[in-house]
Amino acid sequence: NAGVTQTPKFQVLKTGQSMTLQCAQDMNHNSMYWYRQDPGMGLRLIYYSASEGTTDKGEVPNGYNVSRLNKREFSLRLESAAPSQTSVYFCASRFPGTNQPQHFGDGTRLSIL
Amino acid sequence: AQRVTQPEKLLSVFKGAPVELKCNYSYSGSPELFWYVQYSRQRLQLLLRHISRESIKGFTADLNKGETSFHLKKPFAQEEDSAMYYCALSTFTGANNLFFGTGTRLTVIP
User: Cβ(B40)–Cβ(B89) under 8 Å?
Assistant: First the structure.
C-alpha cells in the first residue's frame, strides 16, 4: 500500500516547455487535489477532483490543466511553463465524508528556468 | 471567505520547554480544523484533527470557537519536533477543500 505516489520527484524545465505531473493513489479515495507550496505562502489549491469524471478550479488554476484519468490517477499539466510556476507540487487524496483528512504524496520539485 | 492565520513564521524553543504554535481562523460556518506537519523534505502528514480530541506525539490542540483559534501545544519540546507545521481549515465546500495557513517553522534547540 504505497498511498499517494507522485512522479517525477524533480524536474527542470525551460520557459515555454510543457510537462505533466503524475499522481496515483491506491487507497480507493474519491477526491484528489493538486497544491503548490511556495515559501511564505503555505499550500494553495490549484485544482481538485471530487470524484472520477469531475474536476474544478481551486485558488490558483491559471496556467494549469488537470485530468482525472480514472479513480486512481489525477494528472497536472503545465502547457507552457513559466518561471512563476517554479514550486513544489503536492498531490493529495481523501475519502468522502466529514472530518476525513487528506493524504499527501512526496511532492514534485519543479524548477523553470 | 475563509482564512487561516499563523502569525509566527519561525519559532525557536529549547528542548524540554513548552511550545505553542498559534492558529486563528475566520469562517462563518462550522469548520473542520487540522494540523499537518512536514519534516525536512518529506510529505505532509496529518498530526491532529479537532474532532478527534486526541494527543499525538505529545501534541494537543483545542478548538476555541469564541476566539476562533486552534493552537497547537506540547508541554515539553523534543529535538525531533523540529519541522514545519501547517494549520488547515476545511469548509465542506468543493471536495472538502483545505485552506492552509502559511506555516510555522519550529526549531527545537538542544
Answer: no
Distant-in-sequence, close-in-space partners of B5: CB < 8 Å, separation ≥ 6: B23, B24, B25, B26, B101
Residues of chain A found within 8 Å of residue B100, distances taken between Cβ atoms = 42-44
* Interval A20-45 mean pLDDT: 94
Distance CA B69, CA B31 (A): 11
CA gap A104, B37 in Å, rounded = 11
Cβ contact B35:B48 at 8 Å = yes
Interface contact flag, A98 B103, Cβ < 8 Å: no
Q: Is A40 on the interface with B (CB under 8 A)?
A: yes
d(CA A77, CA A81): 9
Contact A33 B95 (CB under 8 A): yes
Q: How far is CA B53 from CA A26, B2, B33, B48, in A?
A: 28, 23, 11, 8
Q: Which residues of B touch A99 (CB under 8 A)?
A: 32, 49, 51-52
pLDDT digits (tens, 9 = 90+) for A37-65: 998 888 999 999 999 989 999 999 999 99
3-state class (DSSP) for residue A34: strand
